[in-house]
Amino acid sequence: MGVSLVLSSPLHAQSTGPETAPAATPAPQPPAADTTANRSVELDQTVVNVPTTLSLKRHHSYFRLTHRFARDLGRGDVGSLAEDFFSLDSGAIIGLEYRFGLTSNLQAGIHRSILGKTIEIFGRWDALEQSAGRPFGLSILPSVEAQNNLQQDQQPGIAVTLSRAVGSRLVVYLSPAFVHNAHTATLRLEHEGHTHEAGEEDEAESTAVDTTFVGIGARVRILPSVTLVGEANPRLAGYQPGPAGWNAGVEKLTHGHVLQLNFGNNFNSTPGMTARGGNRDQVFLGFNLSRKF
């Protein structure tokens, strides 16, 4: 009995002693800013022509088709335009583009347009990405292009693109660019018996060779998979035939494709074409179709 009491005393004292206070629950912390979600509105590698800072994953590919119908939507009356199915029956200026992600922030690509049989070879380095501590993204884009399948009017250039996403619905771009030898002698395209001019009436008025311009663009999400886009490319110095180019459109994201319907005063799809600007008092219908894989 004595042994039993001695052994039981410590157990009894432990069970009746003061209870240990539970550990304090840490205060909930606010979630970190999701910069990826903020940039989800950045859908494509371009606005229409203005480059974006959307990266391409390592060893992934990107394909883009650009298509501009050659009839001016302001030419003729409504009946004449309807007979031409609102320019869809007209000839078209088509461009094909392919890019490849060398690394997660370095890509290379090639673009060919039937306008002057232009081929552009380009690269892009996504130097900075917008984050909680960095208010903008930045990409650097060197390029070289020439007409007649790289045989004529070589035009090296370089651009820097700055992007700023505001929430998950708006992203804006500023892209200053320089193109050497933007003054080209081959501005005509013979297509199905038609001759399309691009600022030829003003070409003799300029003796400049190079062009500096700035691309200004924006993409605005209005529905989960629908965005509005707009851009302009005013020239700052150099060769300036005709007015600056502009484009606007609406695009739909579906199953990895981005389909964009656009309007603009130009057939441009390369920096050299953009440097030469658009057509005065003319508007053309077109579309871009892109796919990442």
Description of the molecule:
- The chain is mainly β.
- It has one domain: monomeric porin ompg (Porin).
- 13% of the residues lie in helices and 45% in strands.
- The chain contains six helices and 15 strands.
- It has helices at 2-16, 35-38, 78-83, 147-150, 200-203, 271-276, and strands at residues 61-69, 92-101, 106-113, 118-128, 137-146, 152-166, 170-179, 189-191, 194-196, 211-223, 226-233, 235-238, 245-254, 257-264, 284-292.
- The strands form two sheets. It has a twelve-stranded antiparallel β-barrel. Strands 8-9 form a two-stranded antiparallel sheet.
- The termini are far apart.
- Mean pLDDT is 82; it is low at 1-21, 30-39 and 187-204.
Write the layout of secondary structure elements.
Blueprint lengths: L1 H15 L18 H4 L22 E9 L8 H6 L8 E10 L4 E8 L4 E11 L8 E10 H4 L1 E15 L3 E10 L9 E3 L2 E3 L3 H4 L7 E13 L2 E8 L1 E4 L6 E10 L2 E8 L6 H6 L7 E9 L1
Antiparallel strand pairs: 1-2, 1-15, 2-3, 3-4, 4-5, 5-6, 6-7, 7-10, 8-9, 10-11, 10-12, 11-13, 13-14, 14-15
- Text of the CATH class: Mainly Beta
Q: What's the total count of β strands? A: 15
Query: What is the assembly state of the chains in this entry?
Result: single chain
Note the run of SSEs as H and E.
HHEHEEEEHEEEEHEEEEEHE
Shape: globular
Estimated radius of gyration = 29 Å
Distance between termini? Answer: 83 Å
The CATH architecture classification is: Beta Barrel
- The structural domain count equals 1
Strand content range: 35-45%
Largest sheet: 12 strands, antiparallel, barrel
Average pLDDT score: 82
Number of helices: 6
* Helix-strand makeup class: mainly beta
CATH topology: Porin
CATH level-four homologous superfamily name:
monomeric porin ompg
Main-sheet strand order equals: 1-2-3-4-5-6-7-10-11-13-14-15
